[in-house]
Design goal:
Radius of gyration: 19 Å
Order of helices and strands: HEHHHHHHHHHHHEHHH
Number of domains: 2
Structural class: mainly alpha
Mean pLDDT: 97
Strand order of the largest sheet: 1-2
Number of strands: 2
Length: 311
């Protein structure tokens, strides 16, 4: 069992703030027995570079996920330019500037002025700017110190096993450390979606425990918040990073998604893994009309808010 699953199962044995509802997961699987699941290919224009070059796209997914977290500030102002926002805007800007960013020397020298004034210039600025500068320059410095590095070599070193690679990413890039390995697993998921590279370890990945997944699971009724936490989330109050409330939300996301995936596979011949379920949960709020009746509740609360580089 993966470390993330062990942590999540342990936290859900005696939860104080979040409960997983097994009966609802069973019912959802029944409602979605004819649903067509898919995996994103992470290449749709104009938000991703239009190339099939393996090394270049892996580098893009690495750079993107190095800063792919927390697109709001403590006052809930969202990173946006009037047309796009959050991760969509971040990905678009990186793609627009990719000819510069794909060079290690350039990555190693980024600073706050470049990120705020050029790369992520917007009506509402991006938050956690010092952390994002450190994350991007970390990649550039790593590449400069390891001129013979390739992603194919790195993946092969870890037996082309998706889980092993996700666990090793934070050892290469310390700014990726996270008890739930969200961004490291998402990086692997993007490589898999685009290239189908990994033939081992996919079953050991967990859902990418972020903001949207628990919001969707709550709307679907798979997880429930105790009254005090529900009030905090509904009123958009910040939940401290590393608090029991925040950790239980993420742990419940993992346990609830695993439960839902297992029941879905009873109807889908075992063909699904958490990459399929994660994409369903991530996109469900925007595609509610495409879901079978009864899957989503009528009441949707905001996602929880925690200032963190983990997700």
């Amino acid at each position: 069992m993966s470390r993330v699953r062990e942590l999540s199962n342990y936290m859900m044995r005696n939860p104080q703030f979040v409960t997983v509802i097994p009966e609802r997961a069973t019912r959802l699987a029944e409602l979605m027995q004819d649903f067509k699941f898919e995996l994103p290919t992470w290449d749709f224009p104009p938000f991703y570079p239009q190339t099939d070059d393996f090394e270049e796209m892996c580098l893009y997914y690495l750079v993107f996920n190095s800063i792919n977290y927390c697109y709001f500030d403590e006052y809930d102002n969202r990173f946006q330019d009037g047309k796009n926002r959050s991760s969509t805007l971040a990905g678009l800007r990186i793609t627009e500037n990719w000819e510069q960013l794909k060079h290690s020397q350039f990555l190693s020298r980024v600073d706050e002025t470049y990120l705020l004034g050029e790369l992520f210039k917007a009506e509402t600025p991006i938050s956690l700017i010092k952390e994002r500068v450190a994350a991007i320059s970390e990649i550039g410095n790593f590449m400069l110190k390891n001129p013979d590095f390739t992603f194919r070599k790195m993946f092969a070193k870890h037996y082309n096993n998706a889980y092993f690679v996700s666990q090793m990413i934070p050892t290469y890039f310390p700014t990726w450390k996270d008890p739930f390995f969200k961004r490291a697993q998402l990086f692997v998921g993007m490589v898999q979606g685009k290239f189908g590279h990994f033939d081992k370890g996919l079953e050991d990945l967990t859902v990418f425990a972020d903001y949207r997944v628990p919001q969707t699971l709550h709307s679907m009724g798979v997880i429930e918040y105790r009254a005090s936490l529900l009030s905090t989330v509904s009123s958009n109050k910040l939940i401290p990073y590393g608090s029991k409330q925040e950790l239980e939300i993420r742990a419940a996301s993992v346990v609830g998604t695993d439960m839902l995936t297992a029941h879905l596979n009873e109807y889908h011949d075992g063909a699904l893994n958490v990459l399929h379920t994660d994409y369903l949960l991530w996109s469900a709020m925007r595609k509610r009309d495409s879901l079978p009746p009864g899957v989503m509740n009528n009441i949707v609360i905001p996602h929880h808010r925690t200032m963190t580089t983990d997700y």
